[in-house]
Amino acid sequence: MSATFEIIKRLVARREVRISEHRYDELAEDNILVTEVVSGVIDGQVVEDYPGYPKGPCVRVLQRDRAGEPVHVVWGIPKDQEFPAVLVTAYRPDPEKWTPDFTHRRKT
């Protein structure tokens, strides 16, 4: 399990989350609801873990929308800070680039 993801889940449970206006617009374009992303973090599955990322630790998480469709969500924590959980981006993974379970990148 990812230590970063465990911290992010605790921060989300405490509602210590930051989402930019720009991010809201991007999610809406993909028909992804912020409420689903935030509430779905508890059931998320870590796909990639970047504990040493230069801007602060982050994780790519496989989550599901209301219809059960896959959504990749990148969550982070600002460098040298303990909070908030930051919703970096969320998108619908391309089946051509990911394995059928959306947990591994396809080898090219």
Kindly describe this structure.
The protein has one domain: YaeB-like fold. The protein has 3 helices and 5 strands; from the N terminus they run αβααββββ. It has helices at 3-13, 21-29, 34-40, and strands at residues 17-18, 45-50, 58-64, 70-76, 85-91. Strands 1-5-4-3-2 form a 5-stranded mixed β-sheet. The N and C termini lie far apart (27 Å).
List keywords for this structure.
5 strands, YaeB-like fold, globular, 108 residues, alpha+beta
Question: What's this entry about, in short?
Answer:
With 108 residues, this protein is an alpha+beta fold. The chain has one domain (3-91): YaeB-like fold (2-Layer Sandwich).
What are the SSEs and their pairings?
Blueprint: H1 3-13, E1 17-18, H2 21-29, H3 34-40, E2 45-50, E3 58-64, E4 70-76, E5 85-91
Parallel strand pairs: 1-5
Antiparallel strand pairs: 2-3, 3-4, 4-5
For the CA atoms, what is the radius of gyration?
A: 13 Å
Strand % is 25-35%
CATH architecture title: 2-Layer Sandwich
How do the strands line up in the largest sheet?
A: 1-5-4-3-2
CATH topology: YaeB-like fold
CATH class: Alpha Beta
Instruction: Compute the number of strand runs.
Output: 5
Report on the biggest sheet: 5 strands, mixed
Distance between the termini: 27 Å
* Nearest-integer average pLDDT: 95
Categorize the overall geometry.
globular
Count of individual helical segments: 3
Helix content: 25-40%
The low-confidence parts are none
Return the structural class: alpha+beta
